[in-house]
Structure formats: structure tokens, C-alpha cells
Amino acid sequence: MGRKSLKETRRQEIIKVFYKVAKKEGLENTSIAKIAKVMDINPSLIIHYFQTKEELTYALIDYILDKYLLIYKVSRDSDVALPEALVAIIDNLFSKKWNNLFDDGLFYSCYALAFRDKKVKLMYKALTDSLRERLTLLIQRCKQEKVLRVADPRRTADLIFALIDGAYFYLSLAANKEEFNLKIAEYKEEAFRLLGISDPVLFMQR
């Protein structure tokens, strides 16, 4: 048991350093040798845990994608009322908190691999399906408790994520922080409109 725990800890250390190096130098310019140099270890030690850079890249993508799921942490708190949980998640999705979970440049470099690597494509597909499903279930619960009147929770969740995906790609090119904040607030308002929520503060008091 101890060995397995130590192995997983070491793997996570390597992945985190890979993330930092790739964030600085770019995914394509990051090698096992560079990671080893930063960690001040022999490259053979990294190869002991990850036989190829491809295997290490898959682990990196898993690490990045896992960060997305943190956005739903609030919905798992049994003390949080459904309206409050839904508003908190929408706020998180359309905020720098969501945007800061990962580096944009590294995220899109990894995402580009999905167009030529079937495994990466399936990894991203599984994540996006999971995110939409979690939001769908929360909307459905709100509908069942009669705090929302959404005709189709699944379609609504899908439209909200289509809005999110487009927003962050577009806003990654924003000229400044003010432009980003203005636009993301507009998109969040549209997400609430899709949910039939005109005033989030009043909605949370239901």
C-alpha cells in the first residue's frame, strides 16, 4: 500500500512540473530532459514512471481535465440549498476562477491533439459529457423542487456550455481585463436568461 502511494505521489510531482515547464515553454518544446533538469533528477527516473513523452502527455491532460471538476465542488455540499448551488456554479463557470483553473495556451495545445489522437479526443469528450451531465442533473433537481421552470434541462445545460466554450475562446483574445470582465458578465446574464432567472439574488431566496 505504501509503495503504491509513494509511486502515485512521485507521478503527480512529475506531472505538476511538466505542467509548469510546458506552460512556460510550450507543450511541443517540453521534453523529459527539461523536466528532469527542473526537478534536478536523472531523466531515467521520469522514464521509470512514464515510459514515453506521449504517456506523460496523457497524464498531463488528465491532470488538466480533473481541474475542471472542481467547479462543481459547491453542489456536493449538502448544506447548500439548490438555488444557491446553481447560482454559485454559474458564477464560477463565468468567472476568472474557472478561467484560472488552467493555462489557456497549454489547454488549447493539448486540445489540438484531439484532432489527431483518438485517445485524447475520447478524454476531452468524456470530460465535456461529465460537465454537461452534472449541470443537467442540478437543473433537473431544481425543476423537480419547483424552483425552476426549464422545459428541457439537458438542452439548457448544453446551450450554457456552448456559450462558455465560445466565450473563453473568444475572450482569450481580449485586449484587456476590462473588456474580459464586461463580456463575461454579459455571457453570464445570458446563461441566467436560459435558466429563466432574471434576478439571481432573488432566486437564491426561494
Fold blueprint:
Elements: H1 2-25, H2 32-39, H3 43-49, H4 53-68, H5 82-93, H6 96-99, H7 104-112, H8 118-144, H9 153-171, H10 177-194, H11 200-204
Helix pairs in contact: 1-2, 1-4, 2-3, 4-8, 5-8, 8-9, 9-10
List its traits:
206 residues; mainly alpha; Arc Repressor Mutant, subunit A; Tetracycline Repressor, domain 2; 2 domains; 11 helices; elongated
By CATH, the architecture of the largest domain is named: Orthogonal Bundle
In percent, how helical is the residue content? over 70%
Structural class computed from helices and strand pairing: mainly alpha
Number of folding domains? 2
What's the total number of strands?
A: 0
Q: Over the alpha carbons, how many angstroms does the gyration radius reach?
A: 20 Å
CATH-assigned homologous superfamily of the largest domain: Tetracycline Repressor, domain 2
Main β-sheet: number of strands, strand sense, barrel status?
none
CATH fold topology of the largest domain: Tetracycline Repressor, domain 2
Let me know the average pLDDT.
88
Count of separate DSSP helical elements? 11
Helix-strand topology string = HHHHHHHHHHH
- Give unreliable regions as ranges: none
